[in-house]
Design a protein that fits this description.
about 900 residues, alpha/beta, Butyryl-CoA Dehydrogenase, subunit A, domain 3, Rossmann fold, five-stranded parallel sheet
């Protein structure tokens, strides 16, 4: 019929081709439709009879039991459909019902057949079935389900299913174990050459470590299974093997890490000569490691090489040797630090580098800045490498007295450098004071290093103020100081070197404060040098023409002669003075100082500047929650032995557990200071104690992640609350020191600009109108003052304000800012900046990069260039696709 139907369709196509009438052959289609149910019944019945015979008569091992359920369901569905269709045909419905009944009768057998053909069922399971059912059976090539029916297997249906379920669970365990074992047979580690040597290192990828952890977890899950009994010994053995591999890998990585750290150290002849016993230990360990690496190269399979208890014990032995060597090395470095305590401020790696390079004397240069406050370089004269001069970071040159021959160990001759530094400054101060009265000040300031000019001027000022108080001539000396400041300002406006300019700015900052103090004394009508208004000031005294002392209230401190270079001084405001007095009182009583306040209030800078007053090294340390008490202890050893100060910035970020130990460490030092001990025990080590050492901390309360200080730690510090600084006063004194005549008026305008901007402009996360921004504007104004001689002072300040701020403002805020500065600087004509060459270069680069030459984009590049001149770091803020990356492109910036 199908063939006839297809032939009919072909005839219809040909009839269309010849434009003949198309014969529909409707009777054929009707016949096919009527025949279809009979065909379905026939096929379903035939399939059922065939498969039933296979499943019942054939051996169980000869067919797939998993397909029985689906095939039975499909045939049952087809037969059920036939039963509905043939309701009116008794003969056909009788056939359909017969087949359906057979299927219904067969359905209970399906579960038992599938259970008996479960993939995990083994001979042991059939033996168990034999015992429980009493039926003797085994999965042989001849066993059929019909045979089992005869033996009444259906009576034990539930027993068969229970045993089969157990077999399936056991099979899952077995499969998982087999898969893990098979997978690990192919996993290898990488054995790579180490640098340019003939040695090798082992590398295991993170994927393998993750894979190992996952397999260990899987094995643990298997060991918790209630069906593990058959495989218990195998599971335990595999888990032990994986744990051994894990332990070996962890130990191997640690040994290798320690070896890679120590290998370059012991590769040098100097260390082998200095530490012969440790070198021998290291060589022994290295031979063991080379043997292990050789075995790993021959057999890189992880499960074979790493699952070795002998390897584990060898690695443990290697690690023990390495840790012993590290401890011996640390003890050796400790002896170096005890001889030259400033080495405590260097890391072990840095100190080792110095020792390794000890034959190359000049290798010490990069580390001088960490050992001294502001000594960046030493000059070594050929051919004997005699040390004759020291240089600050600003390249101020000071000739050492006496010169030093770097002989012996580095820690010995560095100690001589320290002594020479102190002696040099003491002698130069004495020489400067001898001629200060007879030499015009404008000549005298250029004759000496900046530090000597500052403290010499302070000694001279102290002596003259006390003389004026005694003789009641303070107004006369005040007038002299005004003339002196005018002379200094003329000097700073004239041509000078960078070092001279920095020195003059620092001198003017201090002299302005001295003038203000003098004015205050005149207002108070002082007649006695013991009155509080005078003794509360920092006073410098040159005692017996050989030593400098600093006094404040009832406290006296020695000048420590640490070389400070020429890196400027802090503007002293009433807030700074109060802070100084509190800290000096704390130092006198051998306490520390705790400065608390928001960011930008001068906590750290005030501490550093007070250290400059006493010429003491001040080490600033940025704290974090990663600090431990061992590293803090090392730091405190350095402070106590060198007499330096430490300023722990953001001290309350340290964890509370560490702070409790730190409290005990600081208390130990302070108690030794209070009894004026020269030596004391610190963490079971006897240290030399210098009385000048002190600990200061700064804290920023209210920030996330900050810790409340324990009470026993609070008791060791005198608290100082740092409020918002006086922007106008700081700006005025800074501008005056840069040579501005109308400093007071300009400072008021700058501080008012920031005040109004913070009030009127929108709130943005990247806006900053605090002390940092004010200082940047003042520094920019100072640079413009030196570079743009033809600009008026108002024009300079206006340009500085715009250069610093305009680039960060949003479009609407820029209009408001321009309105603010136009009100504060009325009638000021801005002189346009000529960016001719720069702008031409930018536009050329834009075209080379295939970008559009847009004026706004060019302006942003120029602003970025200007910002890089004023800031050490910067951040580009903007929406996606606003040009941030392109503006900062290397080619464009070049």
């Amino acid at each position: 019929m199908k063939d006839c139907q297809e032939f009919g369709l072909l005839l219809n196509e040909r009839q269309k081709l010849f434009d003949m009438d198309i014969v529909p052959y409707e009777q054929l289609n009707t016949l096919i439709k009527e025949f279809e149910p009979y065909q379905n019944l026939w096929i379903a019945a035939s399939d059922w009879l065939k498969w039933q015979e296979i499943w019942m008569e054939n051996p169980l091992v000869s067919f797939d039991a998993n397909q029985i359920e689906n095939m039975t369901a499909d045939i049952h569905k087809a037969i059920s459909h036939c039963v509905k269709i043939f309701k009116e045909n008794p003969k056909m419905i009788a056939i359909a019902v017969t087949i359906k009944d057979q299927i219904e009768a067969f359905k209970p057998y399906i579960g038992v057949i599938q259970a008996l053909r479960c993939p995990g069922i083994k001979n042991r399971h059939f033996e168990e079935l034999n015992k429980k059912t009493g039926i003797q059976m085994a999965l042989t090539p001849t066993l059929s389900f019909k045979t089992l029916l005869v033996l009444n297997i259906m009576k034990h249906k539930e027993t068969v299913k229970t045993v089969a379920d157990t077999a399936a669970k056991e099979f899952l365990i077995e499969s998982t174990l087999d898969k893990m074992m098979t997978d690990w047979k192919t996993i290898t580690m990488d054995i790579l050459p180490y640098k340019d040597t003939d040695k090798y290192i082992m590398k295991i990828s993170d994927e393998i470590i993750t894979f190992l952890d996952d397999d260990l977890l899987k094995t643990q899950h298997l060991s918790f299974s209630p069906f593990k009994a058959v495989f218990e010994s195998q599971i335990d053995e595999w888990e032990a093997k994986l744990r051994l591999v894990q332990e070996v890998i962890a130990l191997w990585v640690e040994v290798q890490k320690q070896w890679m750290y120590l290998e370059p150290i012991f590769a040098t002849e100097d260390i082998n000569r200095l530490l012969p016993a440790e070198s021998r230990k290291f060589n022994t360990m290295e031979r063991n490691l080379e043997r292990i690496m050789g075995n790993a190269r021959d057999c890189p399979y992880v499960i074979i090489t790493c699952a070795d208890k002998i390897l584990l014990s060898t690695l443990k032995e290697c690690l023990l040797i390495l840790e012993t060597i590290k401890k011996d090395l640390s003890d050796y470095l400790e002896t170096k630090r005890m001889i030259f305590p400033r080495f405590f401020f260097l890391s072990n790696d840095e100190l080792l580098e110095i020792i390794v390079q000890s034959k190359h004397i000049q290798a010490i240069q990069p580390y001088l800045k960490k050992c001294f406050e502001n000594m960046k370089e030493l000059r070594f004269e050929n051919p004997d490498l005699r040390i004759t001069r020291m240089y600050s970071a600003e390249y101020e040159e000071v000739v050492l007295r006496p010169t030093i021959y770097p002989e012996g160990n580095v820690e010995d001759w560095l100690g001589q450098v320290e002594d020479a530094m102190r002696n040099t400054l003491r002698e130069i101060i004495g020489e400067a004071l001898e001629i200060i009265e007879m030499t015009p000040r404008k000549e005298w300031v250029y004759m000496w290093p900046g530090q000597v000019v500052l403290c010499g001027g302070q000694i001279h000022w102290t002596a003259h103020v006390e003389e004026s108080i005694t003789n009641n001539t303070l107004p006369d000396y005040y007038n002299y100081m005004l003339l002196h400041l005018e002379e200094l300002q003329k000097l700073i406006r004239g041509p000078q070197t960078e070092v001279q300019r920095l020195m003059l700015e620092a001198v003017m900052t201090i002299e302005i404060h001295a003038k203000d103090v003098l004015y205050k004394l005149i207002q108070e009508r002082l007649i006695n040098i013991n009155e509080f208004e005078w003794i509360s000031q920092l006073r410098y005294y040159w005692i017996d023409n050989k030593d400098l002392k600093i006094r404040a209230i009832n406290a006296e401190f020695p000048y420590e002669y640490e070389y400070l270079g020429n890196n400027g001084r802090l503007v002293i405001t009433p807030l700074t003075e109060r802070c100084y007095l509190t800290l000096i009182s704390a130092l006198h009583l051998k306490f520390g100082g705790a400065l608390t306040g928001p960011a930008g209030t001068g906590k750290t800078e005030t501490t550093k500047d007070l250290a400059k007053v006493f010429a003491i090294q001040c080490v600033v340390f940025n704290c974090s929650d990663q600090l431990n008490f061992q590293s803090m202890g090392k730091f405190f050893k350095g402070l106590a032995s060198t007499g330096a100060w430490a300023c722990f910035d953001e001290f309350n970020r340290i964890n509370i557990e560490v702070l409790s130990v730190v409290a005990h460490q600081i208390m130990t030092i302070q108690k030794a200071q209070q009894i004026r001990a020269n030596k004391f025990l610190f963490e079971e080590i006897e240290l030399t104690l210098k009385q000048s050492c002190a600990v200061f901390v700064t804290m920023n309360p209210g920030y996330a992640g900050r810790t409340e200080l324990p009470d026993n730690l609070k008791a060791l510090f005198r608290p100082v609350a740092m409020m918002v600084p006086n922007y106008a006063l700081i700006a005025e004194i800074s501008l005056f020191s840069y040579g501005f005549v109308d400093a007071a008026n300009l400072a008021r305008k700058i501080s008012t600009t920031f005040k109004l901007s913070s009030e009127q402009l929108s709130t943005q996360e990247h806006y900053d109108f605090g002390m940092y921004a004010v200082k940047t504007v003042i520094a920019a104004a100072g640079n413009l003052k030196r570079e743009q001689k033809d600009l008026e002072e108002d024009q300079i300040c206006l340009r500085a304000l715009k250069n610093v701020n305009v680039s960060k403002f949003l479009k609407d805020d820029l209009k408001l800012f321009n309105d603010i500065v136009s009100d504060l600087f009325p009638g000021i004509i801005e002189k346009p900046v000529d960016y001719g060459i720069l702008e031409t270069g930018i536009r050329r680069s834009i075209k080379q990069m295939g970008l559009e030459d847009v004026d706004d984009f060019v302006r942003k590049v120029v602003q970025l260039y200007e910002t890089t001149l004023m800031r050490n770091g910067l951040m580009l803020v903007g929406l996606t696709s606003s040009g941030k990356t392109e503006v900062s492109d290397k080619q464009l910036m070049r």
